[in-house]
Specification:
Pfam families: adh_short_C2. GO terms for molecular function: oxidoreductase activity, acting on the CH-OH group of donors, NAD or NADP as acceptor. Keywords: Oxidoreductase. This is NAD(P)-dependent dehydrogenase, short-chain alcohol dehydrogenase family. This protein is an alpha/beta fold. The chain is built from nine helices and seven strands, in the order βαβααβαβαβαβαααβ. It has one domain: Rossmann fold, CATH 3.40.50. The chain is 43% helix and 15% strand. The chain has a seven-stranded parallel sheet with strand order 3-2-1-4-5-6-7, sandwiched between helices.
Length: 259
């Protein structure tokens, strides 16, 4: 019988993480390494990637980093293939890269709309597809964990954010559809749906006390999530502990969606 804590281990699993240079992605990378994984950090921000130094932190585990723009199909194919050449396989994809442009619908340009869709929907699809192609080709199955949002499951919010809300709604149903399609290949596809998370992603909001008070008021636990709290849910969904879980959207939302 597998020891209880072993169910949450990722020993020798090769885990690719997009949007890994900061915030939730970086927190996920750290937790995956602590769980024994070999981690590949992917981000379009070269400078932020280069600033990461896991060796100095004393954490164990093999890791590498590559610059990646998830909207560039050629880059996604090249980097994912390089990961297989370097590490022999891909076991887990944490599909986390995303952007938000907080404009009201009547003020949102088509270019801004398409930019959000390119990153949050098309980019996420391209990465999931390339990971699955290699998992299916190797015949060993795997796990994909997408980053959705409470705004993909609710039309609510404390400010206009139509492009982000629409894109994350697409991520929710993409997750479910891919879970069904890839289940025969033993590939599990799930998503986390965080509330507002205390990272640089929402830095502009945290500088507005009245807005922070409004967010706390609509969150039963009365606070923002931390990046590590979201990352912990990702590691669970990637681990053997979630072996019978697929097509699920796991809210990390302080009770927001329970209302």
């Amino acid at each position: 019988m597998t020891a209880a804590m072993d169910l949450f281990r990722l020993d020798d699993k090769v885990v690719l993480i997009t949007g890994a240079a900061q915030g939730i992605g970086l927190a996920a990378a750290k937790l995956c390494r602590q769980a024994g994984a070999r981690v590949v950090l992917l981000d379009q921000n070269h400078e932020a990637l280069q600033a990461i130094d896991f060796e100095a932190s004393g954490e164990g585990g093999t890791w590498s980093r590559h610059v990646l723009d998830v909207t560039r199909e050629d880059q996604v194919c090249e980097v994912f293939e390089r990961a297989v050449v370097s590490h022999g396989r891909i076991d887990v994809l944490i599909n986390n890269a995303g952007i938000a442009l907080r404009d009201a619908a009547v003020d949102l340009s088509r270019e801004a709309w398409e930019r959000v869709m390119d990153v949050n929907v098309t980019g996420m699809f391209l990465c999931a597809r390339e990971a699955a192609r290699r998992m299916i080709g190797a015949g060993h199955g795997g796990a994909v964990v997408n980053t959705a949002s409470i705004m993909g499951l609710s039309g609510g919010g404390v400010y206009p954010n139509i492009s982000y809300q629409t894109s994350k709604g697409a991520v929710v149903n993409m997750t479910r559809a891919l879970a069904v399609e890839w289940a025969p290949h033993a590939i599990r596809v799930n998503a986390v749906a965080p509330t507002y998370v205390d990272t640089q992603f929402v830095a502009a909001l945290t500088r507005q006390p009245e807005l922070m008070a409004r967010i706390a008021a609509v969150t039963p636990l009365r606070r923002l999530a931390t990046a590590q709290e979201v990352a912990a849910a990702m590691v669970f969904l990637a681990s053997p502990a979630a072996a019978m879980t697929t097509g699920h959207i796991l809210a990390v939302d302080g009770g927001f969606l329970a209302q």
